[in-house]
Structure formats: structure tokens, C-alpha cells
Design a protein that fits this description.
single chain; alpha+beta; three-stranded antiparallel sheet; 2 helices; 17% helix; Ig-like_fold; PapD-like_sf; MSP_dom
């Protein structure tokens, strides 16, 4: 198998000079992992609420059971100057409650 590492290294260097890359482990990583010039991120903290799934007699008697909360940060890549509105996260509307919206601009 021929080695192509020389060509891929050159392409990667050229791409990195024009765009910002975020590591895969970064929780603010944009969709696609690339931020082009004049683009920024809008991120929202979502609170997923998971209701307990038991129908015990205790529940019927009115005893409250703890539900599990899970937080997740989701981000959208947007062009510069775009305002952040909750409708941008419309797809998640039925599943979650938006806790806080953040705007992240990479310089």
C-alpha cells in the first residue's frame, strides 16, 4: 500500500490556516467540527428531565419519587451578526427545557 501521509499533512496544514478546528472531546465542538472565518457558535444548555417509570402503590398514595435530570450543551454554527433566538433549537423543543443560551465567538 503506497504512503500518502505527505499529501494529507500538506492539506491539513492548509485547512488549519483558514479554519478553526475543535477537538472531538470539546463539549462546544460545532456541528462538522469546523468554524470558518466570520462564523460563530450559539450554544444552549438543555435540561433533560427523565420521569421515573414505576407504578408502585406508594406512588398511588401520593408519595413523590425523584426524577433524574441530565444536562447537555448543544451548539449551532451561525454566520457572523446573526441573533440568537430560541427557535434555532426548535427540534429539541418537545424533549427539553432550555436552561441558558450562550453565545461563543471565536477570534
Amino acid at each position: 500500500m503506497p504512503s500518502t501521509s505527505g499529501n494529507s499533512n500538506v492539506n491539513l496544514m492548509l485547512e488549519m490556516s483558514r479554519k478553526l478546528f475543535a477537538p472531538k472531546s470539546c463539549y462546544m465542538r460545532p456541528p462538522g467540527g469546523i468554524i470558518a472565518p466570520e462564523e460563530s457558535l450559539i450554544a444552549a444548555v438543555f435540561k433533560f428531565v427523565e420521569q421515573p417509570e414505576s407504578n408502585n402503590e406508594k406512588q398511588a398514595a401520593g408519595e413523590l419519587q425523584k426524577c433524574r435530570d441530565e444536562f447537555k450543551i448543544m451548539s449551532l454554527k451561525v454566520k457572523g451578526g446573526m441573533e440568537c433566538v430560541p427557535e434555532l433549537f426548535e427540534e429539541q423543543k418537545e424533549q427539553v427545557m432550555v436552561e441558558r443560551i450562550l453565545r461563543v465567538v471565536f477570534l
